[in-house]
Amino acid sequence: MKATTRLSRAAALAAVLALAPATGALAAGDAEQGRIKAETCLGCHGIPNYTNAHPTYKVPKLGGQHAEYLVAALKAYKAGQRGHETMHANAASLSEQDMADIAAYFANAE
Amino acid sequence: MNKAIAAIALLAAASLPLSAQAGGDAAAGKAKSAPCAACHGADGNSAIPINPTLAGQHADYLVRALQEYKSGVRQNPIMAGMAAPLSEQDMEDIAAYFAAQDGLRTPVER
Question: E-strand spans in B1-110?
């Protein structure tokens, strides 16, 4: 019985620790810094109905998107897990802090 | 009565340009989007931060994302499974439905 309790406590602690880094990175996102860092992004994502030249489709709207998803997307572009040359190039130079700041900006941008 | 007419007019106005662009049927897409709701919200406004909000997103971007999940260009085990059985028409219908919902926006540079 005691062993079970100890085990489930350990599991709970492990779960908290596993979640902590992601939550911490997000909490540190500074929307004002992000607004400045997002200037490049707005060249495409700040123009209504702006169309990606190749392949042809409209670049996604980012205003109101979840910060956590945006960070995950930027990481995937940086790692080359999402096939888009321009986004790979843009994300490659971003630090985790840059990503968190930019994501915080877009999450609340009108 | 007036409300019903206004609603129909709004629906027509909202769905016509989308149909023209993507060939998607928003009404059909609503029915087909049922499996999406658990993770992305019934109207595409996701309540789970790691899952993107789809409401208001450009239809052609959503179609592109589904195509890339299906082909494996964009790697996500859950979305690969969801996109696998979808036809092009299914993708366009689902995209038309989410694009017509109120949600994401294009931020304006200040």
Answer: none
Domain A2-108 is classified in which CATH homologous superfamily?
Answer: Cytochrome c-like domain (1.10.760.10)
Q: What is the pTM of this model?
A: 0.78
Report the alpha-carbon distance of residue B15 to residue B101 in Å, rounded. 11
Q: How far is the alpha carbon of A3 from chain B, nearest alpha carbon, in Å? A: 34
Local confidence pLDDT in tens for the 110 residues of chain B? 466 655 555 444 444 444 444 489 999 999 999 999 999 999 999 999 999 999 999 999 999 999 999 999 999 999 999 999 999 999 999 999 999 999 999 998 76
Which residues of B fall within a CB distance of 8 Å from A82? 68, 73-74
Q: Decide if B103 and A64 are in contact by the 8 Å CB cutoff.
A: yes
| A85 contacts A53 by C-beta, under 8 angstroms | no
What's domain B2-99's superfamily in CATH? Answer: Cytochrome c-like domain (1.10.760.10)
